[in-house]
């Protein structure tokens, strides 16, 4: 999930919901709130392909709220930096025959936090002086050029010093995270801080729905950002969608990876829709009316969803965070989705958008949920 970019310590022991009330009317759409889940403020990934960590950190911040732990602001760039360290070693071991870039998957956050821990935003921003948002194009290019030079192995035998040189370049762009930091009079490392949060990473699973692998079994999803070859549990489409709705209904948020390349996904309009007719078959007037009034949507089959993946019209674009559900005047349900493109794309939505369940059904690549959010019957089929 990497393609789309857009142009102090906080610990409050009170519940937190959206930083603003979202509109219940968008043009001719009239929404009623079905479920609202606690979440933290919208952030801005800016000129970086880091949606995977912004969405997953947001997910865990909501988990801490759900657990009654209060409001936290976790450092995205601490996880990003750790990812670049592990990704570099993987790239060299595979002699460049793997992906190296800014994107990753939600499970990579689990793996990296397990290995490196995590810190609050106040302890490590990962931004150079004078910068308050990530800009990673040059950094990615420089880091990859170092690894390409290493892979050429000009001396016939790799020196272990390449890791030190690489880390030096990485820290030149992002800064070196502190070995220890103090909060509320207590000293922490990244590992002891993570332990203090009380999150059990084994409680979280990643799910998908594709028919080119057996259902109810895990498989390595074949997308370039799955550089760590993580497994995804595979469910039939109806059960996959059931998991997401069950999670939200029970008050669990959902980390969501999706294709957002469709013309019917519009952060500018605050909506993502799946009309009954394809975009190319809609007249100009019909296209315009999509954003003005609810219309009939298409409920895709497993076969149609698979075909879109096989022909690469469904791709692994972007990670977001599902934090609620609304229904329009026709009874169609939409997920309330927190994005990481800042708050000004559509100001009255404040960085959120409403995604119809038909769009979710067709274009979702994967979700991450707490195991307890999965219906018991489905969990048993998965062997959990």
How would you sum up this structure, described in words?
- With 384 residues, the protein is α+β, with helices and mostly antiparallel strands.
- Helix content is 32%, strand content 17%.
- It has helices at 51-66, 76-93, 106-116, 137-151, 161-174, 190-197, 237-249, 284-290, 302-310, 357-363, 376-381; strands at residues 25-26, 29-30, 32-36, 181-183, 186-188, 204-208, 218-220, 231-234, 254-258, 265-266, 271-272, 318-327, 333-338, 352-356, 364-370.
- The strands form 3 sheets. Strands 3, 6, 7, 8, 9, 10, 11, 12, 13, 14 and 15 form an 11-stranded mixed sheet that branches. The protein has a two-stranded antiparallel ribbon with strand order 1-2. It has a two-stranded antiparallel ribbon with strand order 4-5.
- Strand 1 (25-26) and strand 2 (29-30) form a beta hairpin.
- Residues 2-19 have low confidence and may be disordered.
CATH superfamily grouping: Cysteine proteinases
- Tell me the domain tally: 1
* Inertia-based shape: globular
User: How much is the radius of gyration in Å?
Assistant: 21 Å
